[in-house]
Design a protein that fits this description.
Blueprint: E1 3-13, E2 16-27, E3 31-35, H1 42-49, E4 57-62, E5 65-66, H2 72-78, E6 79-82, H3 94-99, H4 114-126, H5 142-155, E7 160-164, H6 172-187, E8 191-195, H7 199-205, E9 208-213, E10 216-221, H8 223-226, H9 229-236, E11 238-245, E12 248-256
Parallel strand pairs: 3-8, 3-9, 6-7, 7-8
Antiparallel strand pairs: 1-2, 1-4, 4-5, 9-10, 11-12
Helix pairs in contact: 4-5
């Protein structure tokens, strides 16, 4: 299983400090939720792990190797990425779009192998988009498109999966389905890092939560420890009800702090 270490990471976007001295060790076989208010640095942290933004200070290590020194092809095979709000511009059918997830494994001018096709079929089945296989991706609804793009990420079969707001545009049933799927991937050994806004689903499914605020880690640990009234008041500025329903944790923001 892959291990990612983040050491003293500091990143600015223009003149704005987006991350300030982030330290974290992320182990395979866990579902880690990254939460925090808008502008807290969640997506920037995800992009930094992928090497898509250059740090001013600090580094990201993938199995003790400095990610900045690794070939992009190696990172692409190691970390699958589901970016937030991705727009589709080309009218590919769904199966061909999912097949793009196999590109990191293909040599130039090579053809999809039986193993590649098996990975594509598995990803389509896992995300419940079999009925969409021959549809044109640009004609799908937002929720359908979100599941197809998740299938593309799963088709990589990478040991690390970063999903940035994977629940956006999904109805409640498919939100639960995706969180169950991410949890199953983690139980199978994958390091799953998910940027989330739904605090109840984060509390229910994640093994660990990183709570970001103003580019810093405000709390890191078990969901029951991170999602408490004090942290929610300080970071989100809300008063919340925390309890359980059918044995599962529930977090409901009630009002903004005066």
């Amino acid at each position: 299983m892959v291990k990612i270490a983040i050491e003293g990471l500091r990143i600015s976007l223009g003149k704005h400090p987006a991350l300030r001295g982030i330290d974290a060790s992320l182990d395979g076989g866990t579902l880690i939720g990254i939460i925090g208010p808008n502008g807290a640095g969640k997506s920037t942290l995800a992009r930094a792990i992928l090497g898509l933004v250059k740090p001013e200070q600090g580094r990201v290590l993938i199995d003790e190797a400095d990610a900045s020194a690794l070939p992009r092809a190696t990172i692409a095979r190691t970390i699958a990425h589901l970016p937030q709000g991705q727009t589709l511009h080309w009218p590919l059918d769904v199966e061909r779009l999912v097949a793009l997830g196999r590109l990191p494994h293909l040599a130039p001018f090579s053809h999809i192998s039986g193993a590649d096709q098996a990975a594509i079929d598995k990803a389509i089945a896992l995300t419940d988009v079999e009925a969409l296989r021959h549809r044109t991706a640009t004609e799908l609804s937002g929720g359908e498109r979100a599941r197809v793009l998740l299938a593309r990420a799963l088709a990589v079969e990478a040991p690390v999966l970063i999903a940035d707001e994977p629940l956006a545009s999904l109805d409640p049933g498919h939100q639960l389905e995706v969180m169950e799927l991410l949890r199953a991937q983690a139980m199978g050994g994958t390091l799953v890092i998910a940027v989330l806004h739904d605090l109840t689903l984060a509390a229910r499914f994640c093994d660990r939560i990183l709570l970001l605020n103003k580019g810093e880690i405000a709390a890191d640990g078990d969901p029951s420890d991170v999602l408490n009234a004090g942290n929610l008041a300080t970071v989100y500025g809300v008063r919340a009800w925390l309890g359980q329903a059918d044995g599962a944790p529930v977090v409901i923001p009630l009002s903004r702090n005066p």
